[in-house]
User: What shape does this take?
Amino acid sequence: FILTYPLMTNWNKMNWFQLFDTSSWIIRCEEQISTNITRPKAVIYCRVSDSTQVTEGHWLESQESQCRNRCRSQHPTIEVENVFKEPGVSGSKMEREFLNKAINYIKEQNKWFNRITHFVVSEASRISRPNNIVEAFTLEEKIQSYGVQIIKVDSVGLDETTDEWHLFKTI
Assistant: This one.
């Protein structure tokens, strides 16, 4: 399909006018594609540590609900694209099936442009609770390296981009 070609290359709006006639249907297509590219989209990641939390409660659903509510209330333009739920796996394990699936999903979606803009968790310990703090920072930096901002529902009002936050996090 000829309209997909510009999406597969590094293109800008000028390419549309260089490749196509500027008839109204082309402009509508370009506007629709631009809207889909620029609208912020999120991936939600939920995790519970043990199988009891999976079978006896609604912990995963509760975390998802908290994340969705945060997106709706403080980031109303963000559309939740996908949810990854990790049942009964400790946060001290850095290799987790659904965390890896979430990261790979972001990596694939952001291959050509930043389609996924946010990674949302209910609290910082959902991403990592390793014995080695370097591993925790490395994991967060890996997620952020794909052009994604991490939103932690329990961190309202904290600016996690500052050096002070990184120092605080290590304490």
In short: The two ends are 54 Å apart (CA to CA).
